[in-house]
Amino acid sequence: MRASIILFTPALVALAAPGAVVHDVRNIDWEAALLGTTNGLDKRARSEVSIDTVFKKLGKKYFGTCADRSLLNNAQNAEIIKADFGQITPENSGKWDTIESSQNNFNFGNLDFLVDWATTNGKVVRGHTTVWHSQLPGWMFSESGGLRDSVFSRVLGEDFVRIAFVAARAADPAAKLYINDYNTVEKGANYAKTTGMINYVKKWIAAGIPIDGIGAQAHLMANEGANVPASLKALCAIVSECALTEVDIVNASANDYINTVKACVDIANCVGITVWGVRDPDSWRASNNPLLFNSGYATKPAYAALVSTLAVMAPAATRSPVSASTTLRAVAAVPTL
Q1: The domain 9-125 belongs to what CATH superfamily?
Q2: What is the 3-state secondary structure (H, E, C) of 237-288?
Q3: Scanning 43, 59, 212, 329, which has its CA 20 to 30 A from the CA of 12?
Q4: Among 189, 179, 176, which residue's Cα sits nearest to residue 147?
Q5: CA R_g for the chain
Q6: Contact 220, 250 (CB under 8 A)
Q7: What are the tens digits of pLDDT across the range 66-101?
Q8: pTM to 2 decimals?
Q9: Which GO MF terms are attached to this record (predicted)?
Q10: Residue ranges of the domains in the chain?
């Protein structure tokens, strides 16, 4: 409804002075009276009385609104914009997290749709928003593959990694020392944080820093298990040993757990897996039911599926246990990326 003027006609008539001429306001064309046109509200040439037109008469450039594709595809919404506004601002389709949600993968589809619609309908477009601290893509913050901005890196620079590992080696020369981090197996082998970890660890080992292994935490979302094999293989290829260190998976599907566990089984120097808790209620992600046991400590379907899968994959006579020399007595876990 474009405009509403509510009049209590009986009260107006009752208040009229005796003998006065009373006009029945129910039959007045209020738009004609107020806006100077005799067209009906739904039949008028809307551009003659639009807020954009009135505003421009004051020497302004436009009176606009915001929209995106979904609102422009809404016929009622689109008609109002056509009739009453002279400018459109993309509400979200021009923001960085929409245009480049993953690094170097650009999608201007929704923004192009808006610009084309505006051009077709004679509207100007206001660009929004090129640089803003909010609604930035997640990869810009902690997944770029560079060192994380932390108290360690701020005070000690990149050398904090060397200091940590050298100190750990001195404390226990026989310990296997791991660098352990999250989001290194969830997104695939080409994910920036995964490749960043690989590049840094290669450089550090070449510089004599005593890194024995890489730990991949593997706090997975549902359906990310399929990404683990390639990621883990790439990480394990550059160190003497590796492990999945904090596994939990949203909804704990059998397929996700099988893919994740099988990834380690298939890599010779993946020495072990740690599931991050026993039963769901005790998990740091309790609402996601990510573990292998339910609240009553009963095994969940993923547990049985893993047992069956591993039994088929690894008959006792065909696999040797991990040698005693790879037993972890201590781990230096240094999340850096």
Answers
A1: Glycosidases (3.20.20.80)
A2: CCCCEEEEEEEEEHHHCHHHHHHHHHHHHCCCCEEEEEECCCEHHHCCCHHH
A3: 43
A4: 179
A5: 33
A6: yes
A7: 789 998 998 878 987 898 778 887 888 988 889 998
A8: 0.55
A9: endo-1,4-beta-xylanase activity
A10: 9-125, 142-326
